Amino acid sequence: MSMTHDRSSFYLDDIPLQEARERFSQALAAAGLDRPLGIETLPLDRALGRVTAEAVWAKRSSPHYHAAAMDGYALRAADTDGASDRNPIDLALENQTTYVDTGDAMPSWADAVVPIELVEPIPPSADVRHCDTIRIRAAVSPWSNVRLMGEDMVTTELVLPAGHVLQPIDLGAIAACGHDCVRVWRRPRVAILPTGSELVPPGTQAKAGQIIEFNSLVLAGQVEAWGGEPSRQAIIGDDLAKLKTAVASVSADHDLVLVIAGSSAGSEDFTAAAIGELGQVLVHGIAVRPGHPVILGMLDRASPDQEVPSRRSVPVIGIPGYPVSAALTGEIFVEPLLAEWTGRLPRELPTLEATITRKVHSSLGDDEYLRVTVGRVGNRIVAAPLTRGAGVITSLVRADGIVIIPAGVQGFQAGEKVNVKLYRTPAEIERTILILGSHDLCIDLMAQFIAFKGARISSANLGSLGGLIALRRREAHLAGSHLLDPESGEYNLTYVAKYLPEIETVVLGFVYRQQGLIVERDNPLGIQGLEDLSKEDVIFINRQRGSGTRILLDYHLTSQGIPAEAIRGYEQEAFTHLAVAASVTSGRANCGLGIQAAAAALDLDFVPLFQERYDLIIPMEHYRHPKLQPLLQLLEDPEFVQAVKDLPGYDTTPMGKRFA
């Protein structure tokens, strides 16, 4: 059945995730696609990671003969009865014993092996391997030091069951029992079609309005990891006819078609229309965040190379174009389907219980997949929510796991227990150091260096005050902070005393860094200081409330008598120094207060204004804990210190110095 080309009919009401899965499953079952796709026979050197389609039975025993288990002399155990230090027994070679190496077939008349180190040559000066007679001083029991035929496997014995994912050692077992190939389920062929006239291939110098196409790389990697054979197709522009032709073409020789983007209801979203004209749209719009505009459908295709063509159905999934939505759609729909087709169970991520670090709101009608970082702080596992935007691919890179907020739940309160599906192993979580607070490029540099020391850093940018509050709630191991006390002119100490009065804390110096105004290349507006921010043609980008940079700005604006309301853009907020620089690069603002290294990273000009001290605030219980020792040792690592010095605007003089 096909749908008519009525654009208004293709974006249906969002339906619950479970209902969408049921519709898709029913259509797959009706088409006979709810089971593995077929069997192929592979040589063992190509079968790693594949799933056995049939049980593997031993064709021969292993070993298939009685074999010597060590170097020594084969003999009849009965001939050694009564042997002792006082009553040694001599055995003549050829007639009563013979030398064997490990793995040699046992003579038909022998039933034991005496190890070579327990044998004395006769005469004593002879080579024990080339003597005429041996002397032994202990009796040997029957079949000692012998690998019996079939000790490992016996002919007709089950070696591996069907549905087993083949590991390296399995290949050895299959070969040992007489096979040189194995029957496995065929890998599904998956076509991946990126769409959008704005897309350009990776490596292209993208212009304004152009987007580098990488979703197909992510999906292809997922498909391969889950046992499929991905086939990335060329980018298709926003053209219904071209999209239909491409989808029809790949459906002829692929088992699954993934169409990326064009799944919403905009004027250039053609995926639903193309699927509807080539087959049937089962679902368009699922109550999942991120990932609302998912399309599930079936294509109706004639099977090629047949005198009387039969019809076959090919499932198709319209993948949302936002990268987080695309990756999660792969996890929700593609992975279970490939598991079914390859004869294995769907992937089950390890789960642990954690404490959510801040309040999270969620839509009542949707299942939300919330990305979090996870770590053990003291005796608690904590989960810190990451940026929720569907276009923030780095939130998936940094995510340690996913928290599912079910439809009907408005969210979680700070401190509430949640179940986290882990992307990383529990061992990785245990060695994770959580750093919350002010953003600094050196924290990213530290994460790079510490990885070689067996530890791992996970950080989130909450601002300096946010970091201290996280320490008070025992949600982090340390926080980065550069809070200036206007009265004393000192950094951080007053705030630590105020926000962490009952926690013994170390204030550890890290860096001095240059703060100033990040401005456009060549500074076309001639901005020289804070007094220029109130000019009519200047648009400012600010840092978020609670950040040390925001507090520093407000302090100097007050001291210079510059009202905040006189600055255009004062209410615009960015959460990192690099985000400030990106705002200037993009034209969202003309300038913003930030560090010199951020300006240099994006090839912008910089007007230096202040030098500030950035410290690491560490509760004493963590400062003394073995988990933090790799980080503390890094502060004395000459290579790391030099790498920080090489960044523009940094001074390492305070690094490692205790201020409290």
Can you characterise this structure?
Mean pLDDT is 90; it is low at 1-10. The chain is built from 17 helices and 37 strands. The strands form 10 sheets. Strands 29, 30, 31, 32, 33, 34, 35, 36 and 37 form a 9-stranded mixed sheet that branches. A 6-stranded mixed sheet has the order 16-13-17-21-20-18, sandwiched between helices. It has a 5-stranded mixed beta barrel with strand order 22-25-24-26-28. By secondary structure, the protein is an alpha/beta fold. Helix 4 (240-251) packs across helix 5.
Which short descriptors sum up this protein?
Molybdenum Cofactor Biosythetic Enzyme, Chain A, 660 residues, Molybdopterin biosynthesis moeA protein, domain 3, 6-stranded mixed β-sheet, 17 helices, single chain, 9-stranded mixed β-sheet, Molybdopterin biosynthesis moea protein, domain 2, alpha/beta, disordered N terminus
- The averaged pLDDT comes out at 90
CATH topology of the largest domain: D-Maltodextrin-Binding Protein, domain 2
DSSP summary, beta strand count = 37
Number of helices: 17
Helix content: 10-25%
Largest sheet: 9 strands, mixed
CATH class designation of the largest domain: Alpha Beta
Residue stretches low in confidence (pLDDT < 50, at least 5 long) are 1-10
Distance between the termini: 74 Å
Number of domains: 5
Percentage beta strand = 25-35%
**Structural class designation:** alpha/beta
Cα shape: globular
> What's the architecture of the largest domain, going by CATH?
3-Layer(aba) Sandwich
Query: Nearest-angstrom radius of gyration?
Result: 35 Å
